[in-house]
Specification:
Distance between the termini: 50 Å
Number of domains: 4
Largest sheet: 12 strands, parallel
Number of strands: 56
Structural class: mainly beta
Radius of gyration: 26 Å
Helix content: under 10%
Strand content: over 45%
Number of helices: 3
Shape: globular
Mean pLDDT: 90
Low-confidence stretches: 1-19
Oligomer: single chain
């Protein structure tokens, strides 16, 4: 019945679309535009390992969707949304088919080939090898249409690279048969296929994979549509008196072991707050309930009421699989059970510093070893809210960002936790040990500096760091600190402060020997009396050679794994570092593209691997060893 409906729709569309469209134009996607994976007829299926999906996934077939784990979007199966998407997808397919071909290409694309905006025809089964450059010639609206009359395949490690302003949302691939992307393909654009679609492990697709007549199957891919409209999340709540506190519980004890540095007030509205060294606290320690804690109690109740009343946008259906390098965008998320954060979660504000994230967990929140909450795309910790219906436990060495609101649950910040945000509980004890908690708001006395901005950006061969202060009070100096993992930081530069100032002051330094891969920077400010405060973290990705990549699969692993590069190497080296930057393993004189690495005597944990040739770092990646 589905096939008959499809044929009727296509026949009707062809009847009213008999004339060619001259000049390449983006097709109307209608209800299909929000899908990154979709089929009109067939199942949409994900196999292990888990994929990183940003966008909707769907099928207009009873086969439905399965196996995806948590996605940053919605799964649709055989409903009104998919019915409309199927019709609109057929219209888009007909539109692309009807665009008059301007240039004819051979069956094999790539090998360094550069193509300008046009409508291209491939008259048979096509393939992509090596690298294809799609050149916008300085026009960000330049449109590219590729009409492949039969099936289309990509070779392992092949790349579609956008240059000179070309945008993925303006690139379209009409495939007249099945579409298969081989392992570690990097692809750009919207694929609309009249056959099955298979995206193999390691595929990175900026665009969409949509089929009008075949199953869609993926395994361990990363996919998102950079052309979609950025979300901004809900309206940020008004914090009122609770904004003064970095650590607070309405009902319970607050205790600390060792030296924990805190920026913000500490207090409880019942029993006591103890164990904090005043020299390490930039704020007031409310040892016993007082007027400020009473006001904080009322404000926290209002904050919780506001967060719990927000309708959710996206359900993360697998709380036990939370994290694992997934990227979330500004939305209200819900997990309807206790959640366990494993490895890393990225929060991407998509360039909007006012965008708000709310992550609602209908149970306790626990974390694996050294959990990471990483802010990217100009996300700010003060706009991230964790509404947890139960206890919260952050593991040793964790790097966590956002305002934690634990309802009727204790909060445990284990040794070395760096919390860029607040730890707030409506009812429950809060404990900490030898860590850092930064609330970003000081209410009890003037800030040593009023930081307007702190940014890190990649330039040609270096990283530039800029910051500005609106005022300075008793400010001795700044340290610029850098980290490979967001946990262990090293000072790379020291800049004198102004002491006292009421004028806007701008500072700038250059890191001319940046780390390869993703690294993190922060600003440490020190007063004349030795007290310190920190900025938010800024993450950058620096690559010495943009044309090299280093992919690891499986990752995490327990015994052995494989490392793959996109180019043949000769007499290269692999150097492995632990999270403290110490060399723990070296492999010399390797050649080819794929290398097998054994665990040997390495313990479980996070490691970084550099690929070198002739003493030049070509690429850097992260790997995780499990038991």
């Amino acid at each position: 019945m589905k096939n008959q409906l499809k044929n009727i729709v296509l026949s009707a569309l062809l009847l009213f679309s008999s004339t060619f469209i001259f000049g390449q134009t983006p097709p109307p996607l209608g209800a299909a535009k929000d899908f990154v994976l979709f089929t009109s007829i067939g199942a949409t299926t994900a196999a292990a390992p888990l994929s990183q999906i940003t966008g909707d996934v769907g099928s207009n077939s009873a086969g439905g969707t399965s196996g995806f784990g948590n996605i940053n979007g919605t799964e649709h199966t055989n409903n009104g949304t998919t019915a409309l998407a199927a019709i609109d997808l057929s219209i888009a397919y007909i539109n692309l088919s009807g665009q008059a071909s301007i240039d004819t290409l051979g069956l094999v694309l790539g090998s360094g080939q550069t193509l300008l905006s046009s409508v291209y025809l491939v008259e048979g089964a096509g393939s992509l090898i090596d690298t294809l450059f799609v050149d916008g010639a300085g026009d960000t609206s330049a449109c590219f249409v590729f009409k492949i009359n039969d099936a289309f395949t990509t070779a392992t490690g092949s790349v579609v690279k956008l240059i000179n302003g070309a945008q993925a949302h303006n690139v379209f691939w009409k495939v007249g048969g099945a579409m298969t992307m081989a392992t570690n393909t990097s692809f750009k654009g919207t694929v609309i296929s009249d056959g099955a679609i298979v995206l193999n492990t390691g595929v990175n697709l900026d665009g969409r994979a949509l089929s009008i007549a075949g199953a869609v199957t993926v395994s361990g891919i990363t996919i998102g549509n950079s052309g979609s409209t950025p979300t901004t999340g809900p309206v940020a709540p008004v914090l009122n008196a609770i904004s003064c506190f970095a650590i607070f519980t309405s009902d319970g004890a607050v205790t600390n072991t060792g030296t924990t540095n805190v920026v913000g007030d500490i207090g409880t509205n019942n029993t006591t707050a103890s164990g904090f060294n005043p020299a390490g606290v930039v704020g007031v320690i409310h040892s016993l309930p007082d007027l400020s804690t009473s006001q904080g109690d009322s404000s926290l109740d209002s904050l919780y009421t506001y967060l719990s009343g927000l309708p959710f946008d996206i359900e993360l259906s697998f709380p036990a699989l939370f994290g694992r390098s997934q990227v979330l965008t500004p939305n209200v998320y819900i997990m309807n059970a206790a959640a366990a954060l494993t490895d890393t979660i990225f929060l991407n504000a998509q360039g909007d510093s006012s965008a708000v994230f709310v992550i609602r967990i209908m149970g306790a929140l626990t974390t694996g070893p050294s959990p990471q909450v990483v802010l990217i795309g100009n996300a700010k910790a003060e706009n991230v809210f964790w509404q947890v219906e139960g206890a919260v436990t952050i593991s040793t060495g964790g790097n966590f960002c956002g305002i934690i609101v634990a309802n009727n649950g204790a909060i445990v910040l284990n040794t070395g936790v760096f919390l860029n945000g607040k730890a707030l509980s409506t009812t429950g004890a809060i404990t900490s040990a030898n860590g850092h908690v930064i609330s970003g708001t000081i209410c009890s006395f003037p800030l040593p500096i009023e930081l307007m901005s702190f940014t890190a950006s990649v330039k040609d061969g270096y990283v530039e760091l800029n910051w500005a202060t609106a005022s300075e009070l008793n400010n001795d100096y700044f340290n610029i600190e850098r980290s490979a993992d967001g946990i262990n930081f090293t000072s790379i530069s020291k800049v004198d402060g102004a002491g006292n100032s009421t004028q806007t002051l701008n500072y700038s330094i250059v890191d001319d020997t940046p780390l390869t891969g993703i690294s993190y920077y922060r600003l440490k400010q020190t007063d004349y009396d030795g007290k310190t405060s920190y900025s938010d973290l800024e993450a950058v990705e620096f690559n010495n050679r943009n044309d090299y990549s280093l992919d690891i699969y499986p990752n995490p692993f327990s015994v052995e794994t494989s490392l793959h590069t996109n180019e043949n190497l000769k007499d290269a080296s692999l150097i492995f570092y632990n999270s403290n930057g110490q060399i723990v393993k070296q492999i010399e004189n390797i050649s080819g593209q794929t290398f097998t690495v054994n665990r040997d005597n390495l313990s479980r944990g996070l490691y970084f691997v550099n690929l070198l040739q002739n003493s030049e770092v070509l690429a850097t990646s992260k790997l995780i060893i499990t038991d």
